[in-house]
Amino acid sequence: MITIDDIRERLAEIRPPGFPRDVVALGMVRLIDSQDGTVTIHLEPPAMPQSSLNATVADIRRAVGALEGVKQVSVRVPHGGQPQGSAGAAAFNELGPLPGVHDIIAVASAKGGVGKSTVATNLALALTQLGRRVGLLDCDVYGPSLPIMLGLSGRPIVGENKRIQPLERYGLRVMSIGFFLDDDSPVIWRGPLVMGLVRQFLKDVEWGDLDVLLIDLPPGTGDAQLTLVQQVPLAGGVVVTTPQEVATLDVGRGIAMFQQVNTPILGIVENMSYYQCPKCGKREDLFGSGGGARIATHYGVPLLGQIPLVPEVRSSGDAGKPIVIEQPDHPVSKLFIDIAGRVLDAVESERGGTVAPTIIG
Amino acid sequence: MRVSPTTIKRLGKESLGIVWSDGHRSLYPNRYLRDNCPCAGCREGKPRRLLPVLGNPGEIYPLQIAVVGRYAISIQWSDRHDTGIYSYDTLRHLCPCAQCQQTGAEEPTT
């Protein structure tokens, strides 16, 4: 007849990976129950990676199951009290290509305030005007601006299949953290939360069939950017800058990041390139000139276009009706259409560069 | 165009084989790859682990291999260590064959 002490003794031989003491000494074992050869062990594990917990549970099953007279072993771990998987374990849930989404393009800038969201929004709308089915994902978790720029509010609904339905505007499918926040609530998030959100926006949103999913990244080279390049194979990145020296310096870092993770740079968009006086037509280079061209030459990537500083771009964005929609014949709208065409060309010419390896065995 | 693996094959519990896009073939003993884990915890800024991972040949082997984006693979090892992301550049640099070791390509920073 097997006793609780026999079982406890056996458990004292099991040490979770990475812990200096056995499960009994760690106080993990809350309750042992044994009846007619059926042993139930209730655990209360300390914080440990999911993989370690799984290994420990497997070890317990094996060890206790090997005791004479034991027919069945059941190990209970409290639900919800389960420790979070480690960041490393999360790396094993890479999403790979998203079903139904043909090309994923990131719009990035290593510096804030260069008009990245404005460019991303108008570029997305320009792509729809070229007949593409386009999704726009706002990954700027700290300062989501797409809801305002597209005049969208309201919360996305979760469908019966437990997937989040994107909102739609001007033919775009749109998702943003801004839809889930009150207007003045700050987003004070640690890296892992940002990473989780980016993953969820890719995985749990019902994007449907898209030719292009455009991703508006937050400025910098941090968690959101890294998660994105690790989770899904990007068709490429579009980098937005202003012409001035300090902006182009940071943009170099953004480009280097994409190069390190083997993601093609589709090109550079120089925003706020110049100001054209509406009265006299004189062109004024407020932020200097040639920055975008310089950096494009330096890194050997194309300059996709130069967007001038015109009040209509700002006002249309603030009014929730971006210029490509509000004034399709405006010279700037035409510039965006040109850029969209060049982006599509660049995607095609980069296609098939690096193919994911086959893993055998 | 940088070289990247076309095929990655687990060869029993002893080693891992990679066929590269330029036709080169690399054969890595699993212990060697584990010892050269590039994660921050293992490296602590040093070129490799200070102490080798204990275990006999055949005791350390990949449980799972996954592709990371378009630049790397991650390996979950049989000792449950899973934080290492091995970029293709790193893997090629680690290739133990005489030819690669002789050329001594600059170690990538990723």
**Count of the domains of chain B:** 1
Name the helicity range of chain A.
25-40%
> Mind telling me which CATH architecture of the largest domain in chain A this is?
3-Layer(aba) Sandwich
Question: Could you give the count of β-strands of chain A?
Answer: 14
Mind telling me which CATH architecture of chain B this is?
2-Layer Sandwich
Structural class of the helices, strands and pairings of chain A? alpha/beta
Distance between the ends of chain B? 17 Å
Oligomeric nature of the chains:
heterodimer
Low-confidence stretches of chain A: 80-93
Return the domain count of chain A: 2
Strand count, sense and barrel status of the largest sheet of chain A are:
8 strands, mixed
Largest sheet of chain B: 3 strands, antiparallel
Mean pLDDT of chain A: 85
Number of helices of chain A: 12
Using the coordinates shown, work out and report the CATH topology of chain B.
NE0471 N-terminal domain-like
Give the strand order of the largest sheet of chain A, numbering strands 1, 2, ... along the chain.
6-7-5-8-4-9-10-13
- Estimate the mean pLDDT confidence of chain B: 84
Level-1 CATH class name of chain B: Alpha Beta
Overall shape of chain B: it is globular
The unreliable regions of chain B are none
